[in-house]
Design goal:
Elements lengths: L7 E6 L10 H5 L6 H15 L8 E8 L2 H10 L18 E8 L20 H7 L16 H8 L5 E9 L5 E10 L3 E3 L2 E12 L6 E2 L1 E2 H11 L10 E7 L24 H20 L15 E6 L2 E2 L8 H17 L15 E7 L2 E11 L24 E4 L6 E5 L11 E8 L4 H6 L16 H21 L19 H8 L22 E2 L5 E6 L3 E5 L5 E11 L3 E11 L5 E3 L8 E2 L3 E4 L2 E5 L3 E8 L5 E7 L7
Parallel strand pairs: 2-11, 15-17
Antiparallel strand pairs: 1-7, 2-3, 3-10, 4-5, 4-10, 5-7, 5-9, 6-7, 7-8, 11-12, 13-14, 14-17, 15-16, 18-19, 19-21, 20-21, 21-27, 22-23, 22-26, 22-28, 24-27, 25-26
Helix pairs in contact: 2-5, 2-7
Length: 638
Amino acid sequence: MDVRTELDWYPKRFQPGDMDASGGDQLLGRPALSQLEVLIRETAQNSWDAKLDGIDPEFGMALRRTTPAYREQLARLLSGKRFENLGGLERTASFRVLEVWDRGTVGLDGPADLSPVPKGRSARFQDLILKLGVPHNDGASGGTYGYGKTAAFAYSGLGLVIYWTRCRNLEGKLEHRFIASALASSYVDRGVQFTGRHWWGIRTADGEGIEPVVGDEAKELGERFFHKGFGRSETGTSILILDPLVTDTDDVDTEDKEALDRHSDPAEVVEADFSRRARAAIRVNLWPKLVPETPEGQAPMSLSLNVAGEQIPLGDPDDGAFGCWGAGLNAIRRLRAGDQTPVRTPSGFPVKVEAITRYGRTIGHLAIIRRIPSSERASERDALDPIGDDSRVSRIALMRGQAELIVTTVDWVDRELDAGAEWLAVYKSADEFDHLYAKTEPPAHEDWVFEKKTGDAANIVRHTRKHVIRILKEELFPEAMAPAEPSAAGPIIRTGGLSRRLGALLPAPAYAPPEKGDGGSGPGRRRSAGGRRSSIEADAPRLIETFEDGRQRQEIGFRIDASTDLVEVQVGVSLLGDDGLNEPVDPSALDLEWSGGSVVGAGRALLSTGEDCWVRFTGAPRRALRVSLTEGGGSGRP
């Protein structure tokens, strides 16, 4: 079969009520996100909205370089008077394309022209290719065809995108469709005004419209210009963004760096920078799609990122903050499924879920996650960790219930726990209230806006914020309590509640109790029979290695201050349970290793004072630990 090498070009003339093609972004507003983040969020959301029932969809991105032959074919395919610069593609060796695809979705189905569509029938092809800003306001979907479309054009240095989809046509048969489109500035040609919107496909018989190439010819074109094909009965959509702005100057990561040039800087440097930013954007905005509901289950959506032929790993859902976020989401999922089984973080801390109610109805759930970062399998430069140097998130993640896509993260309670303990929270709106939360979102769906607004939707978000703050403060930061009538000595401060909460999280302090008959030398000090004093100052545990079975090798650094040359030190490790209960671990099971000195018994070693020391041990998998270091072991040694 002969496949055409050039498509028909169709520029849109101005008609009454038409909008300048370059005015779409102005109408929608400018989100507080980089162009890359908007592209990833919106295309992934539209893919999720189009998923087939009973199938976990696939979403991927691939950035690749092009060959001279590929560029020559591309320039010939998309010829047109207003796009003479396409001919320069052949001479631009640094020209790249960004392919974005989904599979396991319905594809761009419905009429391939602007024929009327009965209510309740799909019109995805019309909505994405031929129209602008078609809303999905039921709350069940994540995005619209506003930013979902303009984001792809905005990320193209040419404002030009090619679409290849496979769907079921109006007769229910599988059909390939291939079409290109561009958003550019309006212009006047031979006394006629044009909007700046362009399409490449097959002109209708009257010359007043444009339709996609369909069938086997569309399949051949798709396989010529795209890398990701379709399986035997697979449906979905692929888009090709020409000359992508991979050195996006709006990206928050480039504020303190000199911007790269996508054409003149070394390809490896540009692509490495893009890999890092794209990976961070996928993790920050799409992490719920990477979290299986059970350890043995599949992720709700398969996500992939490929740059210049290299597959970029998106991270282990059990690592670092990622594992904590996922535990919070799964705790809400499990509760809503009627499963009362507790959910714990990968480090072993239980997740608490509280319902947010309004007028007796549950409008959402809040999961509270406690953590000690030093006990986690940390991910270096983790954009998902609010306390990391590379962080792009705050402590509270907001998401809608059905779509399970991150709206934003907020610092409604901008406080930290003491002594190395941290916290995160996930708020997920109830499915039946999703449509109201969605009404408060701007076009890019990156916030819930309620300030200076009235109506039920704004009131629900306002109510949510107020009660989330209250619950988090009560759970994590209990206020000091004083009696109604203070004593003469002043108010009595009760800290038992705070102590119980932190006791299940914090490592034991470096403390040596006084000996009998000490006479009260105070905590951390011990007076020996000869009047000598000693103390131990210890650091928090540091993760060294995580084994395949989940056990973790940890190290505690410490220093002994004593009036003698040698001091006996004893290490104790306990497994933590609920309410601070602990179970001591036999020292023989810890595989202890000391820095120098000599071992004098189970869990005990004789070490030099005044020097930096350490002890290493192997802890149980996925359990929180309490570790203590004490001086002396009942051996009679100082």
